[in-house]
Amino acid sequence: MRGKPDRNDKQDNYIKRLQSTIDKLEKPFDRPSKPLDRGQSNIIVAVSMGLQSPITAIAIDLTTQQILAYRSTKQLLGDNYRFLNRQRNLQTQQRHLSHKAQKKVCPVSSQIQS
Prior knowledge:
Blueprint: H1 9-26, E1 43-49, E2 55-61, E3 66-71, H2 73-77, H3 81-105, H4 109-113
Antiparallel strand pairs: 1-2, 2-3
């Protein structure tokens, strides 16, 4: 498009945007002048995922064996915890409806034998 003599403003803007995108891709982000913080190797963060409690996070100091911070699912989600409860209720209701539909379609083996 650059070799095209009769470009309009829209094409010029498109070329500028494309070139700036290419420049950003070729040049990585700026490095900080200070070295990265190494942190403390004696403190670990553990995250537990399960069915009853979908996520639990805990920070532990290994030298003193103390729990620095503990967050349950409700604490992590805050105001959005109601959405998790709603999802659980919908799953329970769907399982119940599915079970009823399966009972309706499939005869129970004890009823066939008697």
